[in-house]
Amino acid sequence: MNEKQKTCHDTDMDRTRRNLLKLAGPFALLLACPAYALDLFKILDPKGGSKDIQRAKNIFEGVGSIAASATDLDYKSEFAIGESLALEGFQRYGLPAKNQTVQKYVNTIGNAVVRNSMRSDIPYYFVVVENNIYNAFACPGGIIFVSSALLKSMNNEAELACVLAHEVAHVGHKHALQSIKRAKFFEGVGKISTANMQGEKGKKFQSMIGDLQSVLFDQGLDKDMEFEADLSGMEIAYQTGYNPEGFIQVLDMLKQKEKTAVKKGSWFSTHPPLSERIVKCDQVMGKYPDAASLAVVSKRFIEYRKLL
Questions:
Q1: Which pLDDT band, with edges at 50, 70 and 90, does 43 fall under?
Q2: 97, 112, 181, 303: which could join 28 in a potential S-S bond, CB 3.0 to 4.6 Å?
Q3: Contact 255, 275 (CB under 8 A)
Q4: 216-240 pLDDT, tens per residue?
């Protein structure tokens, strides 16, 4: 194949790719596999026993060896940490929204973007929680929360896909685990089990979980991590066939609500200033010249939003 033929071939491939991407968003419900059946919800059953016992069970069961670098954790270990943090998330932000149709819809869109993420080989669980705070956050292992307030404030599926892609990007980059790594929580801990997590080792592990809760829910991740998740999330949404400008639209919406919204525990308090994020996201839109032709999907989204 000569250079001229190769150029024409590449152009045809690009055109085909764009056409496929335009279809990907509207057909996301057909392409993705819902993953709402999470054992975590069984723990929320008050008849299941002591919360402390349940929390300990989820931390320790099935957890393998822990490396000095937390980012080298095996998936079971990562998910065990994420599950413990998710339990704290339920306590802080409320229980899952009762409408199962909405939950399945959000999981479907979430798993559609997961297919184009950097860690598409692990399961992801998306949970809408009843809360009036504008927030979404990702726990290690792929457990992702979005508040009903944030969901109700969106206008289309592209905005939802972009927010979920932002959180999926956090999991992909292992941002929360990097926070553990920097604090060196796991040095010398070795293998974690109910047998050896006693005394000082157990206290150290529980302290790590507590500090990670503070980072995730109160302080927020490093500014650079948030910027990285912003841009990665836009790319993931684009690769899925959604207009990545949906993320900027969410940031613009939050900026309008910033003066009157509850700040504590929200994206306003745990993320960089919205104006900075909007500027950085605007700067990369040039990478997506065909963005306006990609999926937005307003009508379907609004129908599901009404169910909340």
A1: very low
A2: 112
A3: yes
A4: 777 778 888 999 999 999 999 999 9
